[in-house]
Write the structure tokens for this entry.
Amino acid sequence: MTPLVLLKARPTPTQLADRLRVPRPAGLELYLDTADLATPEAMDGVVANLEACDLPSNFVLLVEGPIRSLDGEFFDLTRDSDADRELTRRIVDLSRRIGARGANVHAIAPDSEPASLTLENRARLLDRALGPLRFFADVALDAGIVPTIENMPPILRMRESGFYYSAIGMPPQDMFELAQAVPGVRVILDTSHAQLYLNVRRGVQEEVPGQDLGPLRQFCAQAPGVDSMDAYVDVLGETIIASHVANAAGLLGEGLPYSEGDIDLDWLLVRLARQVPYLVTETLEPDNNRADLMREARERALLALNGHG
């Protein structure tokens, strides 16, 4: 199996036009901001933007939910709030309307306090996540959408340059346990997030201003985990349906260009190609309206998959 290599985009006219220029990818993963789901009119606007692109019937669309929920708080898989449930309904409804194959939420319980990183809290949060995850899965599967969850980095910037932590979502055991507990749920492996977690596990030193990383290091050492990307993929096994592709370095170097980091992405993508139908390039861009680094990553990925990496 050769995976399809997709680009990432917000569903704005500018970003859609950029991502769909020649050479056009086989599909897109759309990151939905809270603003895209805030009102029926906003959701209608997303549908209209995509209809204006006149995409072919075989064009693949995946959807990723936002960082913040409808009440302005961070989305939290363990919160089980009315706002998060309604957000879930809207993510799935919009996914259905645009013909997306999968909808993704983050396996996350964001907390600004490093002291929240304890084994007891991890167990409690994994248990609390089951209800909201079952709700998401039921709504998605009823709509013909594959529900997916994504692994988290050890230090969460939350697209706001903040510093947050989550006692769930870093090691592959968390995603596997959740997927096994809720039938139908699959996993999106974010390579950059996984590598940053592995860097904590192997003791990479990097100063993070104003942050006490002692609790994070102790938590990652004590919780069930792995010490290599190969083992990370092994634990997730057949739960993986897609991978976000970007490199990483140190403790904060997320979303780096394809060849600039600690991951041998050529090797990893060939490894993932045995089981993963979709790869989504997710390198961070200097200008989000231009996918220059993502396109470079896509070309490098295609070369690797075709034996020329």
The mean pLDDT is 96.
